[in-house]
Design goal:
The complex is a heterotrimer of chains A (about 300), B (about 475) and C (about 250). Chain A has about 300 residues and is an alpha/beta fold. Chain A has two domains: about 160 residues, Rossmann fold (3-Layer(aba) Sandwich); about 120 residues, TPP-binding domain (Rossmann fold, 3-Layer(aba) Sandwich), CATH 3.40.50.1220. In chain A, helix 3 packs across helix 4 and helix 5 packs parallel to helix 8. Chain B is of the alpha+beta class and about 475 residues long. Chain B folds into four domains: about 90 residues, Uridine Diphospho-n-acetylenolpyruvylglucosamine Reductase, domain 2 (2-Layer Sandwich), CATH 3.30.43.10; about 120 residues, Uridine Diphospho-n-acetylenolpyruvylglucosamine Reductase, domain 3; about 110 residues, Alpha-Beta Plaits (2-Layer Sandwich); about 90 residues, Alpha-Beta Plaits (2-Layer Sandwich), CATH 3.30.70.2740. Chain B contains 16 helices and 18 strands. In chain B, a hairpin with a 4-residue loop joins strand 5 and strand 6. Chain B is globular. In chain B, about 50% of the residues are buried. Classes of the chains: A alpha/beta (about 300), B alpha+beta (about 475), C alpha/beta (about 250). The structure holds flavin-adenine dinucleotide. The site of flavin-adenine dinucleotide (FAD) has 36 residues of chain B, from strand 3, helix 5 and strand 10.
Chain lengths: ~300, ~475, ~250
Amino acid sequence: MSILLIAEHDNNKLNPVTLSAVTAARQIGGEITMLVAGSSCQSVANDAVKVMGLSKVLLADSAVYEKGLAESLSALIVELAADYSHIIAAASSTIKDAMPRVAALLDVGQLTEIVGVESEDTFKRPIYAGNAIATVHSHDAVKVITVRASAFDKVEAEGGNASIDVVNVVFDMGVSRFVSEALLKSDRPELAVANTVISGGRGMGSAESFNLLEKVADKLGAAVGASRAAVDAGFVSNDLQVGQTGKIVAPELYIAVGISGAIQHLAGMKESKVIVAINKDEEAPIFQVADYGLVGDLFEILPELEAKL
Amino acid sequence: MDTLLGAIERVVGEKNILRGEDVRARSADWITREPCLALALVRPVSVGQLSQVMALCYEADQPVVTHGGLTGLVRGAVAASNDLVISLERMTEIESVDPVGGTLTVQAGAPLQVVQEAAEQIGMQFALDLGARGSCTIGGNIATNAGGIRVIRYGMMRDQVLGLEVVLADGSVVSSMNNMLKNNAGYDLKHMFIGSEGTLGIVTRAVLKLQPQQSASQTALVACDSFENLIGLLQHMRQTLGGELGAFEVMWRSYYALLTEESGRHNPPLDTSSPFYVLIESLGNDQAETAQRFEQAITSAFEKELLSDAVIASSDAQRDRLWAIREDIEGLSELIAPRFVFDISLSIVDMNTYVNALEVSVRDIWPDAKVVVFGHLGDGNLHVSISTGEVNEEMRIIIEDLVYKPLQAIGGSISAEHGIGIKKKNHLNISRNPGEIALMMKLKEVMDPKGLLNRGKVLPDKTNL
Amino acid sequence: MKIIVSVKRVIDYNVKVRVKTDNSDVDLTNVKMSLNPFCEIAVEEAIRLKEAGVASEIVVVSIGPNAVQEQLRTAMALGADRAIHIETEMQPEPLNVAKLLTKIVEAEEPGLVILGKQSIDSDNNQVGQMLAALTGWPQGTFASEVKIEDGKALVTREVDGGLRTLSLTLPAVVTTDLRLNEPRYAKLPDIMKAKRKPMEVKTPADLNVHLKKHISQLKVETPPQRQVGIKVDSVDALIDKLKNEAKIILRKLG
Ligand SMILES: Cc1cc2nc3c(=O)[nH]c(=O)nc-3n(C[C@H](O)[C@H](O)[C@H](O)COP(=O)(O)OP(=O)(O)OC[C@H]3O[C@@H](n4cnc5c(N)ncnc54)[C@H](O)[C@@H]3O)c2cc1C
């Protein structure tokens, strides 16, 4: 078995989701070759060779691959595909765009966002928005796979010493052209899409004390949210409201501070991956949904948290 | 006082008695959001604890106010500074569900939505439903005999309750946890407590009746260009859908236009030029049949010109968006704050004349006043909000007169489903005759001789008799 | 310009799925079925392009058993002009869907094909890209804005960390993301009219497509339930748990 793994990067650094994809690839077994396709991305290849578990790094460095346009990237992967039994990558937006094309051009099915490896041709993947997990079996000679990075640990980014092979094929399909991009640069990500959300409730006591939350949020690169009670009390404006009648969020980490946990609030955040509750009332219902609960005075806890992060 | 609170603390434990800021942080008036003034808040975890707490209060002549989810709209849960609040927030357990008998046994502090979801888990449904479902509690629903959006099909809370457990003023526990559909052994005591708004006892547990799940729902928003057509439409839908008619919720133009086009809170699915809009829902068992019957019913109403335009939700997401307009009471509160809120019953045929006359009489005094109307038309129940831009006592008296006087003349009720609380107690005589009120007072005297339970609520002040 | 919109009938977004006790699949008996939400957005976008005078005709296509005609009627009530139903016993795999659509596209020669980015049942997120690959057309996936200008499609896409705009030559394939638009409701008079709009029925054999099996579903399970939470007694313990147990990276990324 031999695996071609497509690196995720920004032409500058290797994105850590790639390390999770390597774990998935190692669970499948066989030699792993990592493809770094981009523009002026030698530094990414230099990162890649150090990743544990790779035997080779392929570097395709051309202006054509700068933005990872699906038409060109998929043509490149298909060109290289003949040597591999598996083509795999973390399900980034670039990969979700390009990988199904690879599968179609190879006339094989694609296994989308796997969360578990059962064997070289059998995998687990979520369906129905994660409300069910399917075990699926591929009949194709080449398995084209995208990986849900959060389901796999990351391999060590240091310690490997693969060699770099330069790939000189360039595919410019000429049908699609990059025009512009607007990357969210603000330190405070938008509530609906943030990876981390920290929300305050009635227990915050005042608009001023939301400053304490904001400081922690800045440390975490988190968005700030609020419960309906905090909005009603006038502490913050209602565009921060998380809940049934506010925004529905599902971040990796949700920290509820001084929020009792009314069912309407839970409806807006219970799909979060990890929930932390900080409340002085140890009977507050929020603790029933929290993975980690800390009972105590938020006016002491928040500054301490800020200092220790 | 401290000795009483100390004794109570020994019963419930330190963390279950709240004082000071923790009490102020709660608000028992959903509309004004004013802080709770009570001297302390106790949250027992069992009926045993509550019974002991009430025995202590009884001995000390300590008045109490019961708190459920605090969504009541008649100031029934408002406490004075010498009141002690009993909150059911720690008695929220669903004790058992019986799919064969179709019953569910629950502690009174459980939120309505939790009960609805527990019923769904076993493929049944709990049929009471209202906008405050996420916060309001079963105890509060029982205490106010709540109505809501499914009354046309399943009746009010009273129709969903089979048995009750109640703690009386002196701390004694009356268990009447009947779980049989039929039980005519003597007086059916539960009915005395349902709708008594916490003045006769504190509800701690209930046996609720479940209904088979109606998994196939169909929803439409329709526009009507006259009140006659609106009534015709109601009759038409009743006839063509029969038992499947699950909701018939009317929004006067004043409500629909305000919540959509005028405020931008919701995109208007239909333009805002019609005088009446109705949210119609059918609930059935078979997806395809229910859908077909519903479309047929709406189409034939259109052909008979009972409705002038309609949209049918093609997914539950669209259904939710239609309901969001009707249930955006938060939005209404924001848009026309401050307001006077009324919840009245009257015969359907009288509604249009009544509302038109009310608008005229209000605008006679305040030309710019807003009169916003919606309600459960099929149940003869309208919710009327009146906003003149400010709220004061003098104005309240005038507006209550404008709303209630004509109602008395046509035999309507000052409270269809929200209850009496403090807000309407001195108008009780509009909807109840002296004999009825006298019997109510006698009952209160027997059940709560010291007048400790929700003091000053529901029954009129003696000076007003 | 003609637009083809391909739509899928799926379990309604609000239905909580249950896994069958024999773990063969989820239980779909008597559950509400609707247009896939992303497909609804695709139909809406096509209608808006028609209302803007950019498109002249909208053809909706759906693949599956007879029941999918219900969703095709819905799409026509919303504003599509005619429908093509490709009749199959079950919903085929993405690659087979893409092959069937390729045949339709070859015959109809649209200027644009709009699809939902994924269906909320199988969550595959593949068909649009596969169709683009098989036709050799450019693609604009996960679109949050679509403009047609000077014979090109300007598509703004939702990508990790922001938005990216591409210019595509026409004909092209676009897949929709949630923020592209808010779909309208079907109005009663239009629902009635839609019953008379043309619906063509074809089979994979008519289109000369052989449905090949690439991936089999062996088993379906309920996901592991959330573990009961624990209480920690200090900020240090909390940070330690988050880092080492929950494996959360407690720092700003980039
Ligand atoms: C957005 C919104 C929509 C609403 N829609 C409807 C509707 O459609 N139909 C309708 O009928 N009502 C409606 N209501 C009002 C309705 O009365 C309440 O939502 C609900 O029934 C009250 O429950 P609660 O737990 O919040 O009670 P609370 O507000 O806490 O209490 C209400 C009264 O009951 C007493 N009480 C509470 N719990 C107990 C108990 N365990 N034992 C004894 N007494 C108790 C309280 O002392 C108080 O007098 C609505 C309210 C809101 C805010």
